[in-house]
Structure formats: structure tokens, C-alpha cells
């Protein structure tokens, strides 16, 4: 176990060719907007079908914030989608540990699967309103600190602001 190589791409996570694509899901696992919507649109119905089965078998109350679970990647150019639920940002409560947990748990699931290349979006920075600079700090620090057999962690940033925030942290 060593530290994975961190790479940055500006673009659409659904276009990445990697072993696993991480989805910024919501706890229902039944789809949403942003990354989630894009993954289900491009990946096709097989992903939602497996998400429904996971809801029925293991996550009747939804996937808890900070946890991660894998499904097929359907028609995406990947083997798996790893769904993780980011925390909604709060001004009154520090939920950083939950955001860090998303990265750690996703890498743990990736290791269980044997994934070597994993693409992450900037979890929680869309609808869940986490400030981009802080989200980038937590993402990069957590991935660097996590022991994993994953060789490449690719952060896929949707716009220039996100790309610059991650680039400043990766150095
Ligand atoms: P969350 O609910 O965790 O905030 P969102 O999907 O709303 O998740 O947004 C997370 C981040 O992903 C945002 O910075 C958003 O701009 C970005 N994003 C949205 N669509 C894509 C995409 N297709 N590929 C990569 N990043 C995306």
C-alpha cells in the first residue's frame, strides 16, 4: 500500500475511462441532479436497477452520509460506480469528518473491488454547497492519508474554479 498518484482533469466524470467512477449520490440511491443525474443518464438503467436492489436488501433507510457502496457501471467506460453520500455543508456544525469519510470509504470499496484507477468528483460542492477550497483541502488531504492499493486517483473537476482549487492543493 502506497499513496496513489493524484491527477486532475477538467471535464465530465461520465467520460472517464477508469476502473471505478465515484458518484456524489444522495442517500436514497435513486438518482438526483448533478453528477448523480449525469451518471444515470449516460450509464443507463442497469445502475438504477442495482441501486434499487441495494435499497431493498441492505439500505432500507438509505445509504448513510459518509458511506460508500458499489454497483455496475452500466454503459459507462468503467467497471464500477461507487456511490457515496456527501454531507450537506453547515455553517453551525463541522461535518468535515463526514466529507473525509466519503473519500476514505470510497477507496476502501475500491480496494475490495480491486480497482486501480478511481475518478472522483468534488463531492458535496454542488447542491450540498460545500465551499470549493475547503472541499479540495479535505479531498486531497484524505486521499493522501489513506492507505490504498489504488494507483491513480483522478479528480474530475467540472469548471475552472473547481480545477484551480484542487490544483492549489495538489501542488
Ligand atoms: P453534491 O450533491 O454532493 O453537492 P453535485 O452533483 O450537486 O453533488 O455536485 C458536485 C460537484 O460536481 C459540483 O462541483 C458540480 O459542479 C460537479 N459536477 C456536476 N456534474 C458533473 C459531471 N458530469 N462531471 C464532473 N463533475 C460534475
Automatic annotation (TrEMBL):
InterPro entries: Macro_dom, Macro_dom-like. Residues 1-171 form the Macro domain. SMART domains: A1pp. Pfam families: Macro (PF01661). Signal peptide: none annotated. It comes from the Bacteria. PANTHER family: GANGLIOSIDE INDUCED DIFFERENTIATION ASSOCIATED PROTEIN 2-RELATED (PTHR11106), MACRO DOMAIN-CONTAINING PROTEIN (PTHR11106:SF27). This is O-acetyl-ADP-ribose deacetylase. It comes from Streptomyces thermogriseus.
Amino acid at each position: 500500500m502506497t499513496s496513489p498518484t493524484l491527477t486532475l482533469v477538467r471535464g465530465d466524470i461520465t467520460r472517464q475511462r477508469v476502473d471505478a467512477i465515484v458518484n456524489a449520490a444522495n442517500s436514497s440511491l435513486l438518482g438526483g441532479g448533478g453528477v448523480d443525474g449525469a451518471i444515470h443518464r449516460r450509464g443507463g438503467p442497469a445502475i438504477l436497477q442495482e441501486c434499487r436492489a441495494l435499497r431493498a436488501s441492505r439500505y432500507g433507510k438509505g445509504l448513510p452520509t459518509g458511506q460508500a457502496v458499489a454497483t455496475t457501471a452500466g454503459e459507462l467506460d468503467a467497471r464500477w460506480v461507487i456511490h457515496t453520500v456527501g454531507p450537506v455543508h453547515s455553517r453551525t456544525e463541522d461535518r468535515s469528518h463526514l466529507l473525509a469519510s466519503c473519500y476514505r470509504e470510497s477507496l476502501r470499496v475500491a480496494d475490495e473491488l480491486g480497482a486501480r484507477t478511481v475518478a472522483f468528483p468534488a463531492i458535496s460542492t454542488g447542491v450540498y454547497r460545500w465551499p470549493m477550497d475547503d472541499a479540495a483541502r479535505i479531498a486531497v488531504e484524505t486521499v493522501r492519508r489513506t492507505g490504498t492499493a489504488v494507483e491513480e486517483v483522478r479528480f474530475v473537476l467540472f469548471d475552472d474554479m473547481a480545477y484551480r482549487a484542487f490544483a492549489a492543493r495538489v501542488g
